[in-house]
Amino acid sequence: MKWRGSRQSSNVDDRRGLSGGAMATGGGILGLVMYLLYTFIGGGEIDPTQINRQLAPESNQTSLTPEEQAEDEERAAFVKVVLAETEDVWNKIFAEGSNQYSEPTLVLFRGGVSSACGNASSASGPFYCPGDQQLYIDLSFYEDMQDKLNAPGDFAMAYVVAHEVGHHIQNLAGTADKVNRLRGQLDEAEFNRYSVMLELQADFYAGVWAHHAQKMKKILDPGDIDEALNAANAIGDDRLQKRSSGQVVPDAFTHGTSAQRMFWFKKGYETGDINQGNTFDDPSLKN
Ligand SMILES: [Zn+2]
Fold first, then answer.
1. Fewer CB within 10 Å: N-end or C-end of the chain?
2. Which residues on neighbouring strands pair with residue 106, listed in sequence order?
3. pTM over 0.85, yes/no
């Protein structure tokens, strides 16, 4: 992605330097790992009680070498540019619909963080908290994408940010609320289907963003869309579950299969039309 020299968003709350304080407790490693596998790119569906139960936040007293520090700074600069690019695109799309876009804040943290959705550790992966309208990212996630999930490339990182912003769009549109109200009315398997639709719509919005960012500013390098598709492929729930348990249990899906994630990102990217992102109407997702 062409990003150097571009505007960096100022809607960033950089908490990387903060110590873990009260959150510096260990434990729950197995729970952490399981939770991690199910919530990579976790977003709107985050349930605070679940985070608190499953994630005993780890200490974030990590000290970085100068090289790691430099790398971290580079990643921070990159995600600030990506966030700014999402602001430009969504401000324009909202204005075209005679609405005003309310820009979300990005919280950068290292190790552990507390949000209106509860405490989280870096193991929870990037997430969006509707309660405070903030995106939370521990930049070390990008190393995991590269090394553990085989999803390298700067645009894979951009896709993750754009996906979380997609959850913010859903929050503004009231879609997240509607789905949340179904929690408790539906059995778990049925509710999970709605969670998947919500996740896939966030992927769709990430694609819509890429479409318009390219149109407005030609941000894409050759191979960028493939990087995003590869990331969508690598972090589908079926892949993650295979990695964790060796078998796929469709009813426990909350993010969609690799193929579904790729399909919806691509649809958003190719059409650039927010009106085509009704994942809730997709017959293949209904049962
Ligand atoms: Zn998500």
1. C
2. 12, 135
3. no
